[in-house]
Sequence to fold (468 residues):
Amino acid sequence: MEIYNTLTKKKEEFKPVNPPNVGIYVCGPTVYDFFHIGNARSFVMADIMQRYLRYKGYKVKFVMNLTDVDDKIIKKANEEDVEASVIAERFTNAFFEDIEKLKIKKADVYPKATGHIKEILELIKKLEINGIAYNTGGDVFYDVHKFKEYGKLSGKKLDDLEAGARVEVNDKKHNPLDFALWKSAKEGEPHWSSPWGEGRPGWHIECSAMSMKHLGETFDIHAGGHDLIFPHHENEIAQSEGVSHKPFVKYWVHFGFLNIKNEKMSKSLGNFFTARDVIKRFSAETIRLLFSQAHYASPLNFSDELLTSAQKGLEKITNFVQTINNKLDKAEPDGNYPEFIIQTYYDKFEQAMDDDFNSPKAVAVIFDLIKNVNKILSEDEQWGSNFYEDILDFLNSTAEAVLGIIQEPVSASESTNETVDKLLDLLVQIRTKAKKEKLYEFADQIREKLSELGFTLVDTKDGTEIKK
Fold:
């Protein structure tokens, strides 16, 4: 099994630090809003990685942090005139709701920054003792010039970074590239006691403290979006190795960017989608299949057309599974077995995934099996039940257990409920548009009619919620 390592810029044979145990840390969300579809790609691909490592027999400890103290959280809290913890709790709950809808298996640990202040302070103290951190009036900074290997992950050089650095108004720093480990308290912000006065941690030190606390000073895989390579992951290495003097992470894995119709996703372009929005329109399996059809490190274009295409592919898989189940119900235990070797498909699936988690090739193996089995079924032979059982076992252990793309048949009542939800969502969108166009009487009529049907609309700063 080989993994592309961002640190060494090449594929390397995967050799865990302490086999068969594997420690994985993935940068999770900053809980100030619903996570967007680009974040969803990282979360789904990290989920597929850990599922495959478990499939291979490794004992995985999967850790994903929750950043619950941050400038963005504080800004939103001030806008709503509530405590930062209220915002963090609201969107932490939303995060768990949405990853469950995406069939993402829960991590073994979800550490929160606010629950690791003690560990954060200990790390900063050690960096200060080692002469790498300095305190200026309650703000503590990391001196990047004190870590000789700074830039080894991103390939950036300090001289080039300094030449291109914007001059910022911060007299406290020795160097514009030095980054905050501890920020002195400002009015209206959450803060904790420290040897340097009241304050709160910087973002980078939070991840170093949480990953080392739960996985040790050196662990196997650290993953996250490509945009986190610099400065976030670069700074994590500098902090962690500045304390331990040991390699921090063995394999660095980074997920490619997600573009919307060939453009970078942004609110200003009007092409910003939360995962929550997309899940209302497409199933988790459709989204997961689309993500699986691109290599995790490659850029991925995201559009309704591609989702619709993935949906058709999913229908092919779902119909095939239904056909095999129907055949199995009627099959005899002692029937014939065709000239078909199921192990060949297991081998091909593993060869694909062993090659740096090459999920597009793995998906192709599944569709190849469907094509070849359909040829066998067209022969109209009465094959034995063990043939159909082998097919289902393969699909359950690969397409479902690893990729998460087998769709459960939907009952009539579930289908009706889903349609009702979509219609309600559509009415809310029409009402929102009516309000924007100052058609207030029409908007009120929608609210009143929905109220008669037993639904209440609650307008919030994050949009309109429907309560039954």
User: Anything to note?
Assistant: Residues 397 and 432 are 44 Å apart (CA to CA). The longest strand covers residues 219-225. The chain has three domains: 2-264, 317-400, 412-467. The mean pLDDT is 93.
